[in-house]
Design goal:
Radius of gyration: 16 Å
Number of strands: 5
CATH architecture: 3-Layer(aba) Sandwich
Oligomer: single chain
CATH superfamily: Gcn5-related N-acetyltransferase (GNAT)
Strand content: 15-25%
Structural class: alpha+beta
Shape: globular
Strand order of the largest sheet: 1-2-3-4-5
Length: 159
């Protein structure tokens, strides 16, 4: 798989919040958002992204070709107590991994994740988690991610 010519990778900034959220909207729509709630979350999510990019609690990388963002990935930095699996209190949750349809099949998602993992290593993070869509599962497995025993309970839906 060959990367697109003229590919530029850059850190996400608070000014990119709308672009990142548009990618999230496309991702959830492609995954079949069963409740049709994607538009309801848009504005609040843009604000959340802007705030967390500004505070450093979230960071991301964007891929551009010809000045157009074709992909991105982010990491939410979490402070959790040490455990038998890791003594580090800083953990990373990878999210918002998305590549536009015309940029797929070129290894771009893997490259974006590798960049985030390099950032994790530089910060001493040794515990990285994510939620894998069916479409992304093979990419994550190739990078060494494996399934966990995580469970979920949805207590209700906010309006």
């Amino acid at each position: 798989m060959e990367r697109p010519a003229a590919l530029t990778l850059r850190p996400a900034t608070p000014a990119d919040a709308e672009t990142i959220q548009s990618q999230r909207d496309a991702m959830f729509t492609e995954m079949g958002d069963p409740q049709g709630r994607v538009p309801l979350a848009h504005a609040a999510s843009v604000q959340w992204l802007r705030d967390h990019l500004e505070s450093g609690e979230y960071s991301g990388v964007l891929a551009e070709v010809g000045g157009r963002v074709i992909g991105g990935a982010g990491v939410l930095w979490q402070s959790l107590p040490p455990s038998p699996r890791t003594l580090s209190t800083l953990r990373a949750y990878v999210l918002n991994v998305y590549v536009a349809p015309d940029g797929r099949g070129q290894g771009l998602a893997g490259l974006l994740i590798e960049l985030l993992l390099a950032e994790c290593r530089a910060l001493g993070v040794d515990h990285v988690t994510l939620h894998a869509s069916d479409a992304g599962r093979r990419t994550y497995e190739r990078l060494g991610f494996g399934p966990t025993n995580e469970m979920r309970l949805t207590l209700g839906t906010a309006s």
